[in-house]
Amino acid sequence: MQHNFYALIPALALTWLIAGATANTAMAAEQSSKVRAVVELFTSQGCSSCPPADKLLKTFVERPDVMALTLPVDYWDYLGWKDTFASPRYSERQRAYARSRGDGAVYTPQVVINGRGHAVGSKERQINKSIMAFEKLAPLDVPVSISSKKGVMIIELGGAPEGLKIKSATVWLAAVQKTGVVKIARGENRGRKLNYFNIVRDLAPVGMWNGKADRLELDLKSLSWTKMDACAVLVQEGIGGPILGAAWLDG
Questions:
Q1: What percent of the chain has pLDDT over 90?
Q2: What's 11's DSSP letter?
Q3: 195 near 138, Cβ under 8 Å?
Q4: Cβ(123)–Cβ(131) under 8 Å?
Q5: Does the pLDDT at position 200 exceed 90?
Q6: CA nearest 232: which of 179, 178, 159, 173?
Q7: Which of 115, 189, 217, 241 has the fewest CB atoms within 10 Å around its CB?
Q8: What's the farthest any 2 CA atoms get from each other in the chain?
Q9: How far is CA 114 from CA 180, 222, 246, in A?
């Protein structure tokens, strides 16, 4: 059964989880933006219809042209199982998308593509159709690259392409755990062992983009999260608006 949830809650303040600096934090050299689609899966360990979507996401994770992220929500915790990865911030992010689109559609499993359209998270054909549509109508054409050097994370942002009317956007940085396995003891998925991919463990704004080429530098020691295998950068209009550019950096 597909789960739907329409009650809105006030926006939650985003907090940055700092899990103790480590001197030996190592990041891959550089990853430039070659992403043509960002797929965000809103899912829950307490949702019986979500496991097929969780499994399908791996297909998109493996595609070099797609950035696929899992954002577990907490609003089904009352069904008997508290999601071990969920955050109320991701629940609010999903609701912000619904407000921005104006359709009020908040459900699990739901994917949001490029911050614009949505589809059922287990429907591969629907998702691919949306990816192709937004690649033509609203491509991720703000150049973004992310690299690390001598303990500093560097995010480089290109200028606004001709015709882009959005002049200001938020630069979001996500800490990502690439895989996770959870044994569910209660609730709708009781007795199942579920696999998750590219789980967002934290998401916070690190700067603003004003349409001009820019460069952000972050101290890696202050960005040491537990269970971080990679990080993702999203350039986005607000919390629930269109995504304009994205880049990925392996840990």
A1: 72
A2: P
A3: no
A4: no
A5: yes
A6: 173
A7: 217
A8: 53
A9: 24, 28, 10
Measured on CA atoms in the order 111, 113, 114, 116, is the torsion positive or negative? negative
State the pLDDT at residue 109.
Answer: 98
CA torsion through residues 73, 76, 78, 83, sign:
negative
How far is the C-alpha of 220 from the C-alpha of 239, rounded, in Å? Answer: 24
Give the closest residue to 139 by CA, choosing from 115, 156, 123, 158. 115
CB 65 within 8 A of CB 37: yes
Instruction: State how far the Cα of 116 lies from the Cα of 181, in Å rounded to an integer.
Output: 30
Contact (Cβ atoms closer than 8 angstroms) between residue 54 and residue 195: yes
Helix H segments across the chain?
51-61, 88-101, 124-137
Token reading at 202: 């934290």
User: Which of 211, 201, 209 lies closest to 238 in space, CA to CA?
Assistant: 209
Taking only the tens place, the pLDDT of each residue in 62-101 is: 999 999 999 999 999 999 999 999 999 999 999 999 999 9
Place 17 in a pLDDT band, splitting at 50, 70 and 90: very low
C-alpha 101 chain-centroid distance: 18
What's CA 26's distance to the chain center, in Å?
Answer: 22
